[in-house]
Amino acid sequence: GVFLYNHLQQKVRNAEALAQKYKQQQEALSAQLQVVYEHRSRLERSLQKERGEHKKTKEDFLVYKLEAQEALNKEKQDSMNRYGALSSQHKILKNQHDDVKKQLLDLQLQHNSLKLEHRKTLESHSQKYAQLQQEKDSEVTNLQDTVFKLREESKLLRKAHQEVHSQLLNAQAQMEEFRQLKEALQKMPGLR
């Protein structure tokens, strides 16, 4: 009976030790499980925060994209308006250039005509003067009057010639100015 009693006590002690061991393991596992739960809770909060930030970032990106598209459309419209204005101005300047070119051509023809007429008049006057000098030595006074009149007429012709020449120079300067303006317009990026 003593032996059986001792044997049962030994089994009880072993069972208590085993129970104590299991209890310690359970406490350790509970502590680990608590750490895992806390870590999971932190991860869920972090994930929720990341989702909120991602949603806000996505909304901000959509707003930015819309604003950028509107700005691009506005810039495109402004560029088209500027191009239209420059194109109209270019047409006007081209028409003005053609008009000045035609006017210059007319002035050149008029200048050549007046130059030829002036030369013919001078030749005619010289011939008349020589003929009158040879034929009418006795009429020096009348001849001097005639020469004076011819010289006055020559002055008027020279004056007219100078005026036409001045107009020609002005027209050439204006045409050069329009040529430079046309080159400047052709160098502008909008017109290319």
Automatic annotation (TrEMBL):
- Provide the leader sequence positions: none
Q: Quote the protein name from its UniProt record.
A: GOLI4 protein
Q: Which residues form a coiled coil?
A: 5-60, 90-142
InterPro entries linked:
GOLIM4 (IPR042336)
Keyword Coiled coil listed? The answer is yes
Q: Which UniProt keywords apply?
A: Coiled coil
Q: Which PANTHER family match?
A: GOLGI INTEGRAL MEMBRANE PROTEIN 4, GOLGI INTEGRAL MEMBRANE PROTEIN 4-LIKE
Any GO CC annotation of this UniProt entry = Golgi membrane
Q: Does the keyword GTP-binding apply?
A: no
Q: Which domain of life is it from?
A: Eukaryota
Q: Which gene holds the coding sequence for this protein?
A: Golim4_0
